[in-house]
Amino acid sequence: MEENRKPLTLTEKVEANIRSQIDCGVYEPGNLIPSEHQLAEIHEVSRVTIRQALQKLVESGYLIKHKGSGTYVNPNRALSHSYKTGSFSENCRKKGIQVHTKILSIEEIPVPYDIDRFMPKSTKQITAIQRLRYTNGKPCLIEIDYLSNECQFLAQEIKDDSSIFELLQQHKIGPVVSFEEEFSITSATKEISQALDIPQKTPLLEVIEVLRDYNDGLLYINRQFIYTKRYKHRVQSSCL
């Protein structure tokens, strides 16, 4: 159970944060990462802690050290251990697509039956943030984020166009290091069809994504109903 998880050491937290930044594309394959001095300032820790964290990332194959020039993201490790799914905003920016997000509702609801298996057994109610995503001015998907107890603060702080990843980093929560996704085909309900401005019963791609931290603790669950004629959900895979 989550309450029995062993707390991370400071070195493990820094290691997990840098690993998450690599997995999320902040530091891309082949990129030179900041110096030990810069990283110590960014993470507000000693250079000894940074050095230990970087060494662990070198040993796990995330980083490569080049004597005299610095530490680089391993060009052969473009993704996380098994796969990486690009975020909505990140994918759109890379394609030059204008994005906008509008919050539709924030409410406490009973845990939906199809995500109950991902939640701690004692969880009966959960905070759900429902948002409408736009690309180039047209609605393309409905997104619902179900928050764990650790991420309840998002309900008060999130705004239109806010990034959940960035808010988690600001509060030093996480980082997100594990993704699990399920895909299915569904059809637009009356509510979804009105929000997306499409006919009722239009086929949609439904994606449920479970995001966890370094200790495999649940951070939040993201559910998307995607109208694929306006947005393509991208998943990259790797055998590394």
UniProtKB/TrEMBL annotation:
Write the record's keywords in alphabetical order, separated by commas: DNA-binding, Transcription, Transcription regulation
Q: Cross-referenced InterPro entries, in alphabetical order?
A: Bact_HTH_transcr_reg, Chorismate_lyase_/UTRA_dom_sf, Tscrpt_reg_HTH_GntR, UTRA, WH-like_DNA-bd_sf, WH_DNA-bd_sf
What residues does the HTH gntR-type domain cover?
8-76
Pfam families named in the record: GntR, UTRA
Record GO biological process: negative regulation of DNA-templated transcription
Q: Which domain of life is it from?
A: Bacteria
Work out whether the entry's keyword set contains Cytoplasm: no
Tell me a Gene Ontology molecular-function term this record carries.
DNA binding
- Cite the PANTHER family for this sequence: MANNOSYL-D-GLYCERATE TRANSPORT/METABOLISM SYSTEM REPRESSOR MNGR-RELATED, MANNOSYL-D-GLYCERATE TRANSPORT_METABOLISM SYSTEM REPRESSOR MNGR-RELATED
Protein name per Swiss-Prot or TrEMBL: Transcriptional regulator, GntR family
Question: What is the phylogenetic placement of the source species in the record?
Answer: Bacteria, Bacillati, Actinomycetota, Coriobacteriia, Coriobacteriales
